[in-house]
Amino acid sequence: MNLYLRLLILLIKSYWKPRLDLMDKSILKFYVLPNDLDINMHMNNGRYNSIMDLGRADIMLRTGLLRIIYRKKWFGLVGSIHTRFRRPLKPFQKYELHSQVIYWDDKWIWIEQKIFSKGKLISSALVQTIIRSKSKNIASPELMELMGFYYPSPEITEEIKHLQRFEPLE
Description:
The protein is α+β, with helices and mostly antiparallel strands. It has 5 helices and 5 strands, in the order H-E-H-H-E-E-E-E-H-H. The chain has a 5-stranded antiparallel sheet, with helices on one face.
């Protein structure tokens, strides 16, 4: 229930937030709630990925992508998530989720997501995503054009190159 409430709040707030350019950073603020906790009384590792879903939803909402994929009956999928945990988040601790598209090729879109609290990095993730129709993958250049973004991808990062060598996805 907690994430549905957070998603509803995100949907309502996004209506008044400015539109994001594809390369803009989304910043969302949260508190660790009791149902985010595991037996060790810190935020559950799986909850980080669920919270990061909200950051990606904010990007899709505020760039106009969500409207496009809804209209065309497409859907977004995650191909991989590479997450690093640095520090725990304790009950009721305030934190920020920073999400930003950092690279795309013909098939995949890569999003960097970082959680900060009190100016310190708590967790970081590199998320590989794709948009699909029922029958095929939607090429990233086609998505960019539909959203009105007409510039090339930034250079691929060394971390993305490393992940592609480690686990190539076809």
